[in-house]
Queue: 4 jobs
Job 1
Amino acid sequence: MYKSNKTPRHLFIQQDLLNRIQSGEYSEGQLIPKENELTEIYQVSRPTIRQAIQSLVNQGYLERRKKRGTVVCQPKIKQEFTHVIESYDSEMNRKGLIPRTHVLTFKIDRANSEIATNLNIAQNDEIYKLVRLRYAGNKPIVLVTTYLPLTHLPNLLNIDFTSERLYEVLKKMQFPILQIRRKLDVLKADETTAHLLDIDENDPIFYFHSLGFTKNRLPIEYSISKYRGDINSFVFELNNKVE
């Protein structure tokens, strides 16, 4: 099948396999042909096949499974919110994905000690509790629980956060998010989180605590985000500190 041209053989095979994945010929969850079959199809050596496959594994399109073979998987979404202040919708749109939000809960609640400490308010002060399940296409990506101080944000319950962006709303209310502090843990999904994110209980999740500050470093948003570990990866950008 391989046609002699200036393209190295492994790159030609890599691109051909990728085309078959993207066209749906090899669908998500399907095993691709075994290495010995691919050597016959492409008329190349097994090391050449392995090089092409490994490249697609590195890119997240394929995954090697012990005793099964090589399976097609969805490439991980590279989340950049670790170093960029940007709404979820904006980031997904920029990546060519279709964002969707399902609001599970939006109500007035009372701050426990953890929320009060982060938002610099008194325990039992009134807060908004906003719980959103956020999708890319039809896949649930992240479960986000957000707490906001009621005193600074009157009439927030009138906002429909299935379509409105939180950071845009805060900006319009003169509380733009200017700085964010995040803490990352990797935990196992509990039963409720697993059900909502469509994963198995005890599957790994990325667990972020985020504290958003507005003008004068006033804490205005405290969020707990639970990202699926199987289809998300995170980009961290570091700069050398010049003294």
Note: The chain has two domains: 9-72, 77-234.
Job 2
Amino acid sequence: MADTEDANQEILDNITGLVGEERELRERSTRKLGLDNAERARLRSVEIQLDQCWDLLRQRRAKSEFGEDPGKARVRPASEVENYKS
């Protein structure tokens, strides 16, 4: 159980770091009226990584809830997590 909690916390810590970077890039875009190509690409990459992290965390929690091994959850490809419907 502790390993599961540690792994989930690691994912949450990663999410926290990515959210901070995303906020910084968005603030920078409004302060200087836009981002350069590299910054736009990085922002898109961060957005995708965030979606993948949240998806992985949801998978792990669902597996735990239903008595499955959360360690079997895997990061899904960006093409999959980016096309989820709300």
Note: Helices lie at 2-31, 37-65, 78-81.
Job 3
Amino acid sequence: MDYITDPRAIESKSMDIIDGLLGPLPISEGERKVIKRVVHTTGDPEFAKLVRWSDGAVSTGITALARGASVYTDVNMVRVGVNSRLLAGKGADAVCAISEPRVIAEAQRTGKTRAMTAFELLAPEMDGAVIAIGNAPTALFHLLSMVKEGRCRPALIVGTPVGFVGAAESKEALTEADVPFITVRGNKGGSTVAAAIVNAMLLQMP
């Protein structure tokens, strides 16, 4: 059996197949590339119907990343999934504090989740940053509270928590917040989806 072994050829053929599956969509080319990357990562064309963003969110994210915005994540799975080489080329990094001793100690003291606590402690650093939340609805809810209180102002929030407890609700709250966002509706999502969205924007940087 013959099969393709060149990684670039595999990805190129995959994207061509996805293009055909998606067909025409009333969105920009940059937005289409985000959807294609999510479908490519999940192997699920149904995600094309679930991705949502605020007006201009994709271009806002690309601009922020191109000027050197760092990416702050709720879990290390998102952090390691983000293209660190492209970030480093702009002098930026992917940051996740969930395993830091100060976060663990504070979470134990307060009884809050470590994801919430990490964003609480990182808030002073997150103005103008891209936030990518792929796992924890509590982190997204808490981040939105901090944004509403004026404690931080990210350039963009990518929120794709997955699961059956608070995930869909946290993403719905994101769509109603006064901040640029990219999300997916319902219970689907996850760390790989959050990383895929960020990578789709990184790959479009000038």
Note: The first strand starts at residue 51 and ends at 53.
Job 4
Amino acid sequence: MKPASFDYVAPRTVAEAVEALGDTRRKAQVLAGGQSLILEMHLQRIRPQLVVDINRIPELDRMSIEGDELRVGALIRHAAFEPADAVPGPLGTLLSRAVVNIAHPPIRSRGTMAGSFAWAHPASEWCAIGVALDATVEVNGPDGARAIPAGDYFLGPYNTARRPQELITAVRLPLLGENSGVGFIEHRRTHFCFAQVAVAAALTMNDGVISGARIGLVNSADRPVRARAAERSLLGTELGTLPKVLRLPDDHPFARAGRVAAQDDAAPVAEPYADAEYKRQAIAVLVGRTLREAASDQRARMAAREEGHR
């Protein structure tokens, strides 16, 4: 099949893009990386009357640290986060660990973080990280600019609080403190598949006691999930020596948090090769392992800091 016919514009400014999107006479789609949009147009599952190509808008192709947040412009490609030092601190580590799970190098060289937020696929790694970290989605439309908390942004599969005439201009992610550690683990059938389940985690510890936890679940409901019940189960927990065996003891706090996440936070949707019960089991296991990875990362950071002060 080939795409249905459509009109095409390539604005040079955000204002021009918003003006084009605001033309309600034609159903419009935004083109940035196009890694999902072009396929859907090719199959004619999406038939826009107007494609607004934002790739010539320089102000959208910027990434910066502003205060205690990382601001990622709408044209920043996935591949920008592959180097661990692209973003400082634990946040950079989390993003670099997650991004290698996104599709393949050619797709990562074109696709964008903002595009993932616009598409809102339940298996999106970026969307779950955004929910876990309380990210903010900046949009601009005919009624002006507004900021949408990630927790309010996702409404269901491919469904968000962004209005059709609005353009995502940036995603803001809070920087994680240096006493935080991060982890990301993904499970999928093959390297070419979407994640069946994935987990992002950030742990904050003081003197070996968990004082903060953020857990994001990928493809564990009809939208990205923040595992708040599992997070609460960890607060105030004093960690001893981390188990070196792959399987955590059932009474370990991370194993318990995994079971809480699977039963109380997740609402998995059955799909080929992974029914709901399989996904719950995978969630429980991956949450425990990802938390252990985050705790190990935090302790390594603290050890490196202490070594640097000697």
Note: The domain at 180-309 is CATH 3.30.390.50 (Enolase-like; domain 1).
